[in-house]
């Protein structure tokens, strides 16, 4: 393909995408194919010689589209939204076109600097605790009284922390070596040592938090007792999370080779301090070493919220790393009325949210903030000669902030989308989804055969037919098999629930009514069949 053909085909592709999204309603939500459907439709071997572009595009319709689940369909209510918007698509297009790999500042300065600025913008849009944001003398010196007070409180909290936490905070050095209390050059230069990075997924953010927390705890234990071996400490580490936390916490535990305790929740499906405290006490009595708590704001199962204040106080007292996963719910903090949910976030050492879920960014785009960037860098820093550059002491090198070396120019889509919508436009989108969830919940409440489980605060409604788990499994199977609507289940405190997430970008009141009527129709059939079988 030469330049001229690329211009033509590129324009055609934009038309193809715009038509696809405009007419998505005409399609089934879920495909009707069986596993292995694609292999017989494609040649066994890759083509030896070049093929015509028209033929390739014909095969998209013939072979690929039949196997697509249409996440942008107005009747798609599964999981959480898959963010998408035209400015975001264009941002990714430019990123692909530039074809850069931004692992260090020198590898493409704009890639690194725009990313830092975008994380800063979003952190401020969400009113995250200032400790997560890098210090900016032009901005922070002009901050409001409120923020100055918050900063002072945070500084006081830091001062109050105990000798062990002093040990832990003094282990930092840009390239990961232990300094025995020396404050690094970078630390001396800025009051704030927080910052943010874009990673590929929430799972990656949680893994990275766990790696940082693990290194920090092992290092502090080794400093306290130099004879203690890393392997011996590792074998005793324990992470805590709720049983409703996303399975990626458990997976991070597998990768990091640490125990993960999945703790019970209260009647609001929230992890409480008392439960955590009792488990920590029991573990310490067994000689184990608690090192991390991963709390959730907006659980995947039912969008419940752990009690960050209670958990945070315990983490501070026990010197545990406190990570907070707000993969979905974090976007709601753009709106002041939902910020009550993040009460207690000031205790967190790290926080993640996915703009590629609920902030109109297409995949992938996960934001991760950390209060002490050196704790992260210590866990992940290696420094071969071919990656070094002369600005390394002054610049951010994101290769030290995550698992991957090579990184896409993800911040372009954030920049394009935030500027195109404005914060007000993004808030409007969030508020509409929250309003529509309430509309859907009120429709469910009009029919006494159903019940709602949990609170409806954001864009998720969890409901079920009053009756057995099996009955609800049958209902969901019937709905999903129809191809008219798509939802997924969850289990909370042994109750099988059906999750209805408001997902489509332009979701409307009509969409809520249509979904409700489809659910009613299928419920009628399922109940009739169920009763007949039981007689
Ligand atoms: N955390 C929460 C609360 C989630 O809802 C999800 C996915 O839905 C994840 C983590 C994992 O997200 P990712 O697919 O970005 O790894």
TrEMBL record:
Residues 143-170 have a biased composition (Acidic residues). GO terms for biological process: amino acid metabolic process; carboxylic acid metabolic process. Its cofactor is pyridoxal 5'-phosphate. Residues 172-182 have a biased composition (Polar residues). One of its GO terms (molecular function) is carboxy-lyase activity. Keywords: Decarboxylase, Lyase, Pyridoxal phosphate. The modification N6-(pyridoxal phosphate)lysine is found at residue 357. Residues 133-192 are annotated as: Disordered. One of its GO terms (cellular component) is cytoplasm. Belongs to the group II decarboxylase family. This is Aromatic-L-amino-acid decarboxylase. The lineage of its organism: Eukaryota, Metazoa, Spiralia, Gnathifera, Rotifera.
